[in-house]
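Posting this for the archive.
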Amino acid sequence: MPRGAVEETLAAPTPAILYYLVLFLQVDAIAGRFNLAGLPRSELPKIAAVLVSGWVFILPLGVLIYFLFGLGYNPGLSALYACVALLGLDGRVPRPAVGGPAAAASRWS
């Protein structure tokens, strides 16, 4: 990977963090203006269940980092390989259906 691309990749988190911080503040301000509240803690999903069902997204991230930094591929090609890894896992990893048991029953029928 060329030296400039490595420097750009390492510098990218700063504007990304600033972007999401400002986005969070904007959404929080709009929610405050319209008196919107979040879900009660009892209705939030358990972190263990989220991690068990979402682990599949870690592999494409690893593929992206490996091809980008390990093999020195360009960012576009690395992203393509990460997408292929995600698509390859899509049908092979069972995930709970969004919407509860009724949605799960109708998903495969």
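Residues 33 and 41 are 22 Å apart (CA to CA). Residues 13-33 form the longest helix (21 residues).
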